[in-house]
């Protein structure tokens, strides 16, 4: 018999119950007990949803982030919150977001750094480490969840992050060696494993996704030492890897003294033969056979073709599961009422993926005939998608075939363009701007909701959004900014908004996926060849420009970011989808230029984030990603100034590619590193203009003028002042107007001080 299990379930809830409970708790509208009750109900529901599985994950639920949970479980709590008032959860929220429910009127501590989880759009709170870090186990929250699971008779398999991945995800502030902490960390893990075993858990899933990255010898050796030590714990370990292939780490994994391993068989199907040869004869092999990163139905026939022989060989040693936690997909496709039924038929969200797993298990255990109807229905769906005229557009394919090097090349080099742009825009030194979005207020979201529900007609909705844009322009006039934005009020999200307007995309009503904490995104579904039926942003930008004499930035999301934050096709290379997006957004750029827009920003927030997990694959990715950006941006006249924006700026390794994008201006995040991240630009002699973010928009703290001046002076030590812009780190959509206005006032005042001193 094959064993079925799951690595993790989306915790936000099919109706985003957790999001609303959290935000209400932070506002003080619900009590801690009520929040805890919502958590308990969600866990119960999710375990029921998974009750057909042989083993159900416990510990995958989190009130904010599973990595932060691990930090609290290991007692690795930053000193700055340790002795503050309130309960553990309040301190937990202080690390997560800089404040607890109690501190809503002040911002007591700075939040932990947040960064993306491997190559996903999920963001975790970075463990803070130093040579002094001590660990002291407090498993009470995990044990309480286990107790709840036991009461509900759930066949529980606790899920924890492994010690090596935990250290790898962390950052040391004192440049000390993270691996030196391992001997201090392991005793906490051994005690934890014993406690879990004492609670009756036969298996513990220990996640070590870093095994799909390139590990140097010291990390490889640390794996051996760590898992030798963990043998002392009394639970059986299922060591889980996901998000890619094992490659050089395969022999290492097979040597580790664990009772089972899980691999991502979607990416690593080719490695199964080698694994079977090298694994000890009694080790369980769990295969992630359902894609946990995408929303397409699995081709069950094709899967069974290769899985049946593996089952015959391994018998009860074979387990099957989704490739990774289902955190990265929406909960339930059956809630969708507005998707084109033909497309809906091709899709599977978390619940449907678990159904697919059951069908596979039945087929393996009792023969395909036992699930004949299900297999036929699956085959029909797969074939309909493969041959659908909705997917294929010959005109788009022809346009892609015609792409050549001229499309991505501007008429003149940056130096000549800069002279023409400067003559036209007449900007002061240290020009000030913002990144695009202004606060997405409850009123804006409610208006859009009413529009969607049909309670507000298009004319009224448009008028309301125009009012917001007008307010945004007025505020920027009053602040004295130099280059304006329209504020993105009309956009639900910087990716979904474009997905909704492009042919080849479908979008869901309830397909929410957690991005960080209570924040969610609804990735649009890229199912077919992409084209742009009509202009998407021009009317809004023209309207905004009509309200001011200051230059108004056209605001677009770039092809690489749209691709990386969508659910993408699995029937063609990502590069092809990206080129299709590039051609579509290029048309929008040219339309904006035609409409008289002189500054166009093309956000590529996910270009760096989308780097493959293995460095050996970077150059291939960067080649098509940068070329896609160039195709999008570079069809304009010299006088049109192209901006791009990236939220993170650790560019040391890819600075040549960033320069090769040839944007006239790039705005980036640098304030948290006190401009040190600009060193990469300095060392490379980056030739174009840079707006190093002068304050962290993720924090409610108001940056002070003097601090901004100091930061810009540091920037000017690295980049010539004539090429510097002054702007925040990222968009302001998650902030309130009361925070934005004083922050920008100080930013503009700082720019004036800098100009006066120049
Ligand atoms: C820059 N970031 C982004 C990433 N990925 C994206 N796809 N988009 C991004 O901007 N990745 C990296 C970062 C992650 N950062 C964020 C920041 C903020 C959010 C966020 O605020 N998400 C919102 C949802 C946004 C949205 O789609 N809004 C819709 C629907 C709003 C809604 O919930 N409506 C309610 C009713 C409204 C009411 O009555 O009040 C409903 O439908 O029930 C819209 O504006 O129309 C969030 O709330 O989580 C995400 C990632
Ligand atoms: N223009 C977008 C970029 C976010 S990365 C915004 O300002 O929200
Ligand atoms: Zn950003």
**Mean pLDDT, nearest integer?**
96
> How much strand?
5-15%
- Which segments are poorly predicted (pLDDT under 50) over 5 or more consecutive residues? none
Q: Tell me the distance between the termini.
A: 76 Å
Total discrete domains: 2
DSSP strand count:
21
Binding site for L-methionine: 435-437, 488, 603
Function: Catalyzes the transfer of a methyl group from 5-methyltetrahydrofolate to homocysteine resulting in methionine formation.
Binding site for Zn(2+): 645, 647, 669, 730
Binding site for L-homocysteine: 435-437, 488, 603
Overview of this protein structure:
Its EC number is 2.1.1.14. The protein is of the alpha/beta class. The chain has 2 domains: 3-387, TIM Barrel (Alpha-Beta Barrel), CATH 3.20.20.210; 395-433 and 441-647 and 654-668, TIM Barrel, CATH 3.20.20. 44% of the residues lie in helices and 12% in strands. The protein has an 8-stranded parallel sheet with strand order 1-12-11-10-9-8-6-2. Strands 17-18-19-20-21 form a 5-stranded parallel sheet. The longest helix has 22 residues, at 458-479. The protein is globular and about 75 Å long. The site of 2-amino-4-mercapto-butyric acid has 12 residues, from loops. The ligand CN1c2c(nc(N)[nH]c2=O)NC[C@@H]1CNc1ccc(C(=O)N[C@@H](CCC(=O)N[C@@H](CCC(=O)N[C@@H](CCC(=O)O)C(=O)O)C(=O)O)C(=O)O)cc1 is lined by residues 121, 440, 442, 445-446, 448-449, 492-496, 515, 519-522, 565, 605, 734.
């Amino acid at each position: 018999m094959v064993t079925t299990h799951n690595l993790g379930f989306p915790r936000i809830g099919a109706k985003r119950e957790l999001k609303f409970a959290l935000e209400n708790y932070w506002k003080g509208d619900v009590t801690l007990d009520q929040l805890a009750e919502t958590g308990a109900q969600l866990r119960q529901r999710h375990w029921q949803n998974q009750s057909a599985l042989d083993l159900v994950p416990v510990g995958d639920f989190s009130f904010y982030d599973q990595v932060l949970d691990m930090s609290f479980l290991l007692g690795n709590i930053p000193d700055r919150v340790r002795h503050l008032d309130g309960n553990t959860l309040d301190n937990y929220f202080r690390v997560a977001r800089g404040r607890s429910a109690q501190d809503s009127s002040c911002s007591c501590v700075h939040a932990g750094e947040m960064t993306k989880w491997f190559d996903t759009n999920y963001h975790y709170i970075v463990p803070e480490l130093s040579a002094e870090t001590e660990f002291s186990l407090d498993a009470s929250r995990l044990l309480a969840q286990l107790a709840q699971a036991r009461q509900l008779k759930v066949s529980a398999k606790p899920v924890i992050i492994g010690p090596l991945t935990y250290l790898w995800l962390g950052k040391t502030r004192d440049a000390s060696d993270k691996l030196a902490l391992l001997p201090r960390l392991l005793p906490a893990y051994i005690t934890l494993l014993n406690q879990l075993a004492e609670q009756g858990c036969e298996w513990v899933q220990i996640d070590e996704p870093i095994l799909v990255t390139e590990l140097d010898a010291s990390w490889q050796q640390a794996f051996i030492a760590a898992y030798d030590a963990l043998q002392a714990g009394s639970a059986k370990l299922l060591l889980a890897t996901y998000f890619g292939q094992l490659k050089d780490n395969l022999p290492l994994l097979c040597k580790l003294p664990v009772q089972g391993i899980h691999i991502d068989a979607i990416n690593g199907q080719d490695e199964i033969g080698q694994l079977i040869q090298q694994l000890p004869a009694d080790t369980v092999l769990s295969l992630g056979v359902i894609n946990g990163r995408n929303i397409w139905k699995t081709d069950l026939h094709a899967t069974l073709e290769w899985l049946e022989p593996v089952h015959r060989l391994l018998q009860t040693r074979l387990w099957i599961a989704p490739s990774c936690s289902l955190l990265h997909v929406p909960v339930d496709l059956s809630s969708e009422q507005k998707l084109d039924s033909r497309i809906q038929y091709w899709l599977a969200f978390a619940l449907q993926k678990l159904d697919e797993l059951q069908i596979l298990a039945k087929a393996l255990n009792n023969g395909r005939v036992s699930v004949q109807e299900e297999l036929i229905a699956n085959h029909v769906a797969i074939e309909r998608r493969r041959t659908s005229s909705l997917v294929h557009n010959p005109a788009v394919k022809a346009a892609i075939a015609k792409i050549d090097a001229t499309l991505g090349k501007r008429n003149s080099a940056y130096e000549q363009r800069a002279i023409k742009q400067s003559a036209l825009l007449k900007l002061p030194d240290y020009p000030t701007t913002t990144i695009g979005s202004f606060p997405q207020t409850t009123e804006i979201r409610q208006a859009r909701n009413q529009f969607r529900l049909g309670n507000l007609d298009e004319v009224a909705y448009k008028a309301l959004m125009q009012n917001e844009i007008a307010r945004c322009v007025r505020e920027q006039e009053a602040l004295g900014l130099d280059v304006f934005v329209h504020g993105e009020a009309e956009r639900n999200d910087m990716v979904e908004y474009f997905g909704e307007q492009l042919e080849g995309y479908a979008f869901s009503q309830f397909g929410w996926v957690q991005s960080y904490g209570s924040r969610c995104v609804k990735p649009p579904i890229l199912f077919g060849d992409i084209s742009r039926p009509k202009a998407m942003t021009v009317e809004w930008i023209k309207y905004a420009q009509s309200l001011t004499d200051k230059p108004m930035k056209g605001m677009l999301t770039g092809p690489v970011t749209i691709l990386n934050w969508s659910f993408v096709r699995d029937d063609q290379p990502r590069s092809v989808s990206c080129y299709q997006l590039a051609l579509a957004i290029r048309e929008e750029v040219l339309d904006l230029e035609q409409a008289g827009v002189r500054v166009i920003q093309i956000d590529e927030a996910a270009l760096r984030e989308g780097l493959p997990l293995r460095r050996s694959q970077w150059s291939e990715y960067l080649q098509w990603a940068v070329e896609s950006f160039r195709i999008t941006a570079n069809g304009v006249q010299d006088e049109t100034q192209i901006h791009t924006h990236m939220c993170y700026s650790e560019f040391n390794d890819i600075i040549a590619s960033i320069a090769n994008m040839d944007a006239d201006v790039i705005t980036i995040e640098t304030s948290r590193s006190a401009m040190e991240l600009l060193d990469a630009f300095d060392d490379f002699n980056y030739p174009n203009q840079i707006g190093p973010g002068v304050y962290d928009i993720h924090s409610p703290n108001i940056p002070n003028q003097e601090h901004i001046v100091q930061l810009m002076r540091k920037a000017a030590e690295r980049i010539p002042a004539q090429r510097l812009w002054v702007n925040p780190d990222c968009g302001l959509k998650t902030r309130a107007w009361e925070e934005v206005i004083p922050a920008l006032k100080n930013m503009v005042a700082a720019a004036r001080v800098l100009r006066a001193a120049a």
